[in-house]
Amino acid sequence: MISQKLNDQITRIGPGSEAGAVHRRYWQPAALTDEMTPGMSKLPVNLLGERLVLLRGADGTLTLTARVASPDEAPTHHPAEADLHPIAGAPVYPVVEKNGIYFAYLGEGAPPAFPNFDCFRAPDSHVFAFKGLWECNWLQALEIGIDPGHASFLHRFLQDEDPADSYGKQFRDKAADTNMPITQVLREYPRPDIEVEETDFGLKITSLRHMDGGLTHVRVTNQIFPSAICIPMSREMIITQWHVPVDDENCYWVTMFTSFDKPVNKALMREQRLQEHSLPDYAPLKNKSNDYHYNPEEQKTETYTGMGLDINVHDQWAVEGMGAIQDRTREHLGRGDAAIVRYRLLLRKAIKAVGAGQFDRLPMQDQPGTASLIGPLSNDAIADSDDWQAASWKYDMTRRAACPWDASV
């Protein structure tokens, strides 16, 4: 457990806040490129506790600045373009487009370089971007993403779907080089050993599920500082997902799905997700107002939550159920929370560094070094228990060698 003062320090992100100052030293996903349709010149953006407007100039240049808004404007409010009025003299923030997402930098000084991660260097044909609104603080949204053990419980499927119908869905593939569905692995081996390693970009998290016959299932995921994760989705795709603070009590997950194999079927991926979300706010159709479509009969035979097969709904229910801002003064972390503990230490170190003006001590703030970062490795593998490290690396290298774009590391 932690004190209320510390909980406020690591969760609050508005102007003048300490965690907010850290976030403002990094590029933040401001909007999907799909949101600014042809002919639009203004788009409302609610980000880091600020009410902003994304502007597209006559020459196509993109900028972000403050807009006129009432102090109590709802975070999902989406004003019409004609009602978006920039505030004269307000700071103007730079914006760049990366594979379907507009990223904005709200900090002082020159923005940092982008790392050369797979999601950024893959061609547009192999990346699909989407987002969804969660009514909770960004930190609890991130922390569920860096908890490897939760998948065996929260996402427990009591029946294993045909992987032939798995495209675009997480945890609906077969485990690497086997005929065992990944859902079966997670269900039958629910308590992984977890190893956490600090990296130049954040954290590398390895979960080891020791199986029968001297085998180990190895799942490598990553925390990309300050608020993103990179995790395997299937043998073909990885997910790079930011947990973007709208304000203290709301956030968007903003995801790039990156394929190492065939071009992404973007029409199908978008259709799948629009079945679960409404536009223009990308709010989930299953939510607390309708009990997330909880079905007790489904819970008996199909899923742990009884809330359908979309794991985003499971995560949404879990993080929103903690309240708008999780009360960490009452929590009791254990061995399985190793990544969460390490991340909070990393965040507190970053808060201290920003407060002291020591920006070069932040992850990925070394310009030449940041631009050379590649990967990160994110995959599932099954290997002999005494050789799991080499097998995990080999599996990733084999996938990269066959990739039609340059995924070499």
TrEMBL record:
UniProt keywords (A-Z) are: Dioxygenase, Oxidoreductase
Q: Which Gene3D superfamilies match?
A: Naphthalene 1,2-dioxygenase Alpha Subunit, Chain A, domain 1 (3.90.380.10)
List the InterPro entries hit by this protein, alphabetically: LigXa_C, Rieske_2Fe-2S_sf
* Domain LigXa-like C-terminal residue range list: 111-360
Give a single Pfam family match: LigXa_C
The highest taxon in the source lineage is: Bacteria
Q: Name one GO molecular function term.
A: dioxygenase activity
Q: What is this protein called?
A: Phenylpropionate dioxygenase, large terminal subunit
Species of origin: Alloyangia pacifica
